[in-house]
Design a protein that fits this description.
By secondary structure, the protein is α/β, with parallel strands linked by helices. It is about 40% helix and about 15% strand. Helix 8 crosses helix 10.
Length: about 325
Amino acid sequence: MRVVKLSVIVPFYNVRTYAPDTLRSLRANAREDFEFILVDDCSTDGTAELLHRAQDDIEGVVVHRHERNAGLATARNTGLDAARGQYIAFLDGDDWLAPGHYARLLAQTEALGCSFVRTDHVQVTGRSRTVHRVPHGRRGAVSSPRDAILPASRTTSVDYAYAWAGLYHRSLLDRGLLHFADGLRTAEDRPWIWRLHREADSFAVLGTLGHFYRRGVPSSLTQISDERQLDFIRAYNQVVGETAADRDADALLPKAVRTYCAVIAHHVGAIGKFEPSVAQKLKSLSSAALGDMPQPILDDTLDAMDVQRATLLRRLRRRPVAAKEAAAA
């Protein structure tokens, strides 16, 4: 059996329009020691047929199919369970890569010898392309991922949660650090990136641009305003809960709470896009989440926020029936 240097995990769900670009870019990145694990999450639009043809057309392609739609987190876990590579990468089924991107990224990562690397990316919205950079200082320097979580007062690399923007050594998989929370349909990468930053030994940020992230795809959960969006509550509850159990909880919890509050304010501030029943559940779950946060840290967080968001969150916090509504939801 051939030695596999890199496993690339690519979930697909009803992206028939975009999958050809993704598959062409995989062909332009193929190497005899790379494998591409394509996970069809029970597509119904013809995507599955494209993937099966790719098994014959692209070196290293292996296809796995879910018999029911399970969501991005579970699809990635299917790929992780099948991965044989020394390094792991992720790609979404509607994004694409520059030719030779993975070979360059792998060479840089091996030269650094760290547990994982994070990369900048190009966001594509229609015809517009914008470079988005990891919010971290020096490029190409190995450092502690735990130290990169703070300060709480500004955006850091733990807020740049895209799983596909990087490369990860297999030792992280063997330690149980790369799997996602099964069933999370949105924000699945938030507890994942926090765990990596808390528990991995070393990381680096690279300025390598080769990943093209497509925004505005109609089937993407970023474009859907149904109950699946509310999974961010479960994701951030996990972030706060795990951070509270960390040895450095006193230092790290303010960052986790601040981020969670900002996300709640964002969703509740755009509540008009949700159906009434989903909007009601959003307010109930958000109120319950605020009540479960460490209250002194929440007080400090609200005092430091701008007036508009702080007022919104304080109103949610005071909702008297929030816990009962959330339990019944």
